[in-house]
């Protein structure tokens, strides 16, 4: 079999038995009663019917979605773990990190004598049902709970990564890498980035730049918004994804993101969300406390997001129960932790994934959801968009892999851009003990959520979706350093460098990215 | 500079004092010769009172109009708005148009309100029309949510009037402790499931002609407790009142953001979830009701040339995105609950001073009150009666000279709303 037929077979297998499949089948059967469906041209007539009623477009969008999560064709004889992560040392490092995280979760459970999971008594179930819309007012004591890990713990692990087949010398020379990440991965130079991000160039109209109040809307914005309305009308994921590379008009963003992600909100999606909610009400999980704690520590104190505290619980608690999230571990270097029913440790028959979605939240996790609350005021819709964003992008920001969108590559990309284009700055910061990545890492792990103002963050995430890559996050991190380079050259300590970069809420991201990519001398 | 401005204040707030000091103005006491007095509403009463009042010189300026209470006392504001509507109706103004239910199409922007005890019978009549409604009782002369309570049964108000006759109602008979009772907006727009109101700042430099400015950096104040319209919660004031002064006593009060959300966040959220057109319409309507409320009081306001005023407008938006004017404060709080709040209020005072005392120079009450655009800071012109008049005169001239037939249609399209140019 060639690569194409492998992909086709895979997608067919994925869509067979999906609810889309049964819906299309049902409509096809129903249309047989219509007078314009003739027996002698049956196949053609049914096809035309599916096309005119929009089912063909829905099928196209579903296929497009599968193409996105499907990995590039790989060698047929390659073992499945290569789909997760081709490099053995990365796999080992990830496994080791997972063990550490899960161990600390287990010890939290035993130290605090809180079980990993328990059935809620009926009274508590009722109580939670009543309070579903105001979980934020619950004053349970969370002081005993600590986040399992914070981004800086994860950074230490990444710094320690080494490729056993590669000898990296420690001396500082023009050829050596001055940064903290010492593994050889391919990252792109500015010329290559310019090719990829062609739509961000100085000659292209751009939301986040050309919609500025001083620029007449007839020059770009009005026509661009009109085009956006057409894209929405067409309901085509591929067109939508291409369109949002130049940014989403605010009033179309919710629709365009959902379309690009093929995150639907049909009755069956709403029902599925209700099932997850029922799961939250029935069982109490230890990780719920980590969610509460994280929201209280981050979003609840945030000028932009505190309003949405309750929505965050409604999304994140359901997320932890969602076993469909497990599918993404086929292409995620991480592996969901397993827990064993009491007394049966090691017995695979009695193993369950924990938490049920296989994702242990860490400090800042809720910030992946928070910006989406500006777009969707219906929890089920908010949920389906978040889940899709997570299984496409966000998981890569906290698992160790060699993927170009993975956090290791982003760190390396950031460091290389800085070393290549701002060598003086990099050298200076390195000399005073302020490695740039120590500052930029937290931005990148959260894809800048909680650091930028929301309107700017959404413009950045437009490009993540549009280019189907997190690379732009590393570019922005480097661009921020470039923008503040003058001040940074004057600092003499890590603390003062951090102070210079403490407040990013006034930055305009698109001009920064555009100038860095297209106006930097190469 | 001809001389340094001598300032006094009886409101010891750093956002004020820092602004005066930044201008290198000189602090004096109220008994000395002063040019600029930022005073409380208690003091303004004395400054302009018949017995103790002084004659202000051309080089003196104060931050209140003598009878600002025509706008800022809840009962008087309602009275003035009601009178304004009647007058427009009498003039057959298109602004006073009513819909099939007898409601004003353009002037229905305050919740149905009655004075108590004066309008008690009218209130009872209205209450009986809709016995399931909830009403909110507010003392006329108090601010920051003091003395406010909700009722949904006539018996409650009877009990209140019995009880208060022995205590505060004594004062009420003298008119000072009167109450207003307003229909409670029970379908507020909720964001994240929470109720909020809008606090907007509006600067008036003259009432005749009317010149007013809207501050761009208003904010939403959120309730820290979830909003449930059930009546069992009626006693929990935190749910219903969004005043920070009240909310600060709630357990959930957050000192980082103080329950405040910027208007730009609100705009982003509404544009994203409801669309740009409806969002623009909402903000246009808010601007509209501010201007109308000011026009309603302009004829009765003592337009003293030494005065300007920075009002705090409280507005609630309902779930149909209709804004309702709740009340206007003459002395919006200058206390800063968070770091961002301090920056906002510092800038508010700064921009206000830049307009009323251009270049920080000695005030001159005969100033032309037409600051150049670059001095406005975060203010934008909301309405400039002078300019609007000259513009409409120009329009009239043009249409008269141009096409006599077209003049009718151009008038029709200009009414009922003034051209948006005045606040955009």
Automatic annotation (TrEMBL), chain A:
Superkingdom: Eukaryota
Pfam families: RabGAP-TBC
Domain Rab-GAP TBC: 247-468
Listed name of the protein: Rab-GAP TBC domain-containing protein
Chain's gene name: tbc1d19
UniProtKB/TrEMBL annotation, chain B:
Annotated stretches, region: Disordered: 390-424
A Pfam family this chain is assigned to: TTL
Skewed-composition ranges (Low complexity): 407-424
Gene3D superfamilies for this protein: ATP-grasp fold, B domain
Presence of keyword Ligase: yes
Top-level lineage group: Eukaryota
Family matches, as InterPro entries: TTL/TTLL_fam
UniProt entry keywords in alphabetical sequence: ATP-binding, Cell projection, Cilium, Cytoplasm, Cytoskeleton, Ligase, Microtubule, Nucleotide-binding
Entry GO CC: ciliary basal body; microtubule
GO molecular function: ATP binding; tubulin binding; tubulin-glutamic acid ligase activity
Catalytic activity: (L-glutamyl)(n)-gamma-L-glutamyl-L-glutamyl-[protein] + L-glutamate + ATP = (L-glutamyl)(n+1)-gamma-L-glutamyl-L-glutamyl-[protein] + ADP + phosphate + H(+)
One GO term (biological process): microtubule cytoskeleton organization
Chief subcellular location: cytoplasm
Compartments in which it is found: Cytoplasm, Cytoskeleton, Cilium basal body
KW Lipoprotein (keyword) present: no
Quaternary organization: Part of the neuronal tubulin polyglutamylase complex which contains TPGS1, TPGS2, TTLL1, LRRC49 and NICN1. Interacts with PCM1, CSTPP1 and LRRC49.
Family under the similarity heading: Belongs to the tubulin polyglutamylase family.
The protein, known as: Polyglutamylase complex subunit TTLL1
Species name: Gouania willdenowi (Blunt-snouted clingfish)
Originating gene: ttll1
């Amino acid at each position: 079999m060639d690569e194409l037929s492998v992909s086709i077979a895979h997608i067919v297998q994925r869509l067979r038995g999906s609810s889309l499949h049964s819906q299309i089948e049902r409509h096809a059967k129903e249309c047989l009663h219509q007078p314009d469906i003739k027996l002698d041209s049956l196949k053609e007539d049914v096809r035309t019917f599916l096309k005119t009623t929009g089912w063909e477009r829905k099928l196209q969008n579903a296929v497009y979605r599968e193409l996105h999560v499907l990995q590039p064709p790989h060698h047929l004889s390659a073992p499945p773990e290569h789909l997760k992560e081709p490099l053995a040392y990365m796999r080992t490092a990830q496994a080791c990190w997972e063990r550490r995280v899960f161990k600390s979760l287990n010890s939290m459970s035993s130290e605090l004598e809180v079980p990993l999971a328990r059935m809620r008594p009926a009274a508590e179930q009722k109580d939670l049902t009543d309070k579903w819309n105001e979980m934020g007012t619950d004053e349970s004591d969370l002081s005993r709970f600590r986040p399992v890990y914070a981004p800086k713990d994860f950074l230490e692990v990444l710094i320690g990564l080494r490729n056993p087949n590669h000898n990296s010398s420690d001396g500082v020379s023009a050829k050596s890498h001055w940064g903290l990440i010492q593994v050889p991965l391919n990252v792109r130079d500015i010329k290559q980035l310019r090719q990829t991000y062609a739509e961000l160039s100085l000659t292209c109209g751009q939301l986040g730049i050309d919609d500025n109040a001083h620029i007449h809307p007839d020059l770009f914005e009005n026509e661009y918004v009109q085009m956006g309305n057409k894209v929405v009308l067409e309901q085509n994921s591929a067109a939508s994804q291409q369109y949002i590379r130049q940014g989403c008009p605010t009033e179309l963003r919710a629709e365009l993101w959902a379309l690009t992600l093929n995150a639907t909100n049909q009755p069956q999606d709403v029902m599925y969300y209700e099932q997850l909610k029922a799961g939250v009400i029935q069982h109490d999980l230890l990780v719920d406390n980590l969610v509460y704690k994280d929201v209280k520590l981050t979003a609840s104190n945030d000028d932009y997001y505190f309003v949405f505290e309750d929505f965050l619980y409604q999304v994140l608690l359901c997320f932890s129960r969602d076993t469909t999230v497990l599918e993404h571990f086929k292409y995620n270097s991480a592996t969901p932790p397993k827990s064993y029913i009491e007394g049966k440790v090691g017995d695979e028959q009695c193993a369950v994934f924990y938490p049920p979605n296989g994702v242990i939240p860490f400090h800042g996790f809720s910030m992946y959801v928070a910006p989406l609350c500006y777009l969707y005021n219906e929890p089920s819709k908010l949920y389906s968009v978040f889940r899709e964003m997570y299984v496409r992008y966000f998981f890569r920001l906290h698992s160790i892999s060699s993927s170009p969108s993975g956090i290791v590559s982003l760190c390396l990309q950031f460091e290389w851009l800085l070393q290549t284009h701002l060598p003086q700055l990099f050298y200076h910061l390195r000399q005073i003990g302020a490695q740039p990545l120590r500052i930029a890492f937290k931005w990148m792990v959260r894809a800048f959520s909680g650091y930028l103002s929301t309107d700017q963050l959404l413009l950045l995430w437009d490009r993540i979706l549009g280019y189907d890559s997190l690379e732009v996050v590393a570019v922005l991190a480097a661009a921020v350093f470039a923008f503040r380079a003058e001040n940074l050259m004057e600092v003499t300590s890590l603390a003062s460098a951090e102070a210079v970069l403490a407040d990013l809420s006034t930055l305009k991201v698109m001009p920064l990215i555009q100038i860095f990519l297209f106006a930097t001398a190469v | 500079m001809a001389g340094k401005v001598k300032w006094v204040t009886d409101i010891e707030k750093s956002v004020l004092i820092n602004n005066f000091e930044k201008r290198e103005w000189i602090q004096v006491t109220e008994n000395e010769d002063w040019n600029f007095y930022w005073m409380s509403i208690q003091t303004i009463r004395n400054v302009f009172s018949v017995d103790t009042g002084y004659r202000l010189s051309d080089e003196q300026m104060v931050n209140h109009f003598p009878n600002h209470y025509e706008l800022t006392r809840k009962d008087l504001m309602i009275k003035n708005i009601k009178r304004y509507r009647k007058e427009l109706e009498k003039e057959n103004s298109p602004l006073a148009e009513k819909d099939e239910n007898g409601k004003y199409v353009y002037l229905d922007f305050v919740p149905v309100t009655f004075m108590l005890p004066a309008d008690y019978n009218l209130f009872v009549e209205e209450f009986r029309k809709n016995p399931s409604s909830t009403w909110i009782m507010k003392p006329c002369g108090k601010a920051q949510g003091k003395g406010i309570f909700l009722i949904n049964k006539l018996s409650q108000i009877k009990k209140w009037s019995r009880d208060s006759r022995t205590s505060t109602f004594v004062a009420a008979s003298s008119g000072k402790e009167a109450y207003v009772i307003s229909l409670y907006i029970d379908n507020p727009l909720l964001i994240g499931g929470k109720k909020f109101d809008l606090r907007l700042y509006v600067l008036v430099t003259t009432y005749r002609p009317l010149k007013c400015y809207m501050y761009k950096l208003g904010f939403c104040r959120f309730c820290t407790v979830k909003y449930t319209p059930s009546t069992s919660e009626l006693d929990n004031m935190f749910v219903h009142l969004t005043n920070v002064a009240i909310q600060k006593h709630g357990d959930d009060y957050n000192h980082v953001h103080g329950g405040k959300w910027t208007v730009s966040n609100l705009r982003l959220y509404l544009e994203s979830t409801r669309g740009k057109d409806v969002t623009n319409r909402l903000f246009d309507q808010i601007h509209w009701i501010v201007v109308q409320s000011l026009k309603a009081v302009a004829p009765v306001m003592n337009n003293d040339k030494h005065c300007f005023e920075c009002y705090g407008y409280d507005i609630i938006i309902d779930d149909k995105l209709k804004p309702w004017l709740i009340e206007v404060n003459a002395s919006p709080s200058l206390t800063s609950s968070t770091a961002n709040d301090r920056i906002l209020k510092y800038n508010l005072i700064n921009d206000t001073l830049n307009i009323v005392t251009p270049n920080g120079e000695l005030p001159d009450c005969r100033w032309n009150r037409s600051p150049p655009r670059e001095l406005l800071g975060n203010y934008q012109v909301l309405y400039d009666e002078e300019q609007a008049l000259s513009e409409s005169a120009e329009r009239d001239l043009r249409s008269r000279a141009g096409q006599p037939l077209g003049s009718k249609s151009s008038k029709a399209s200009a009414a009922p709303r003034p051209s948006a140019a005045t606040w955009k």
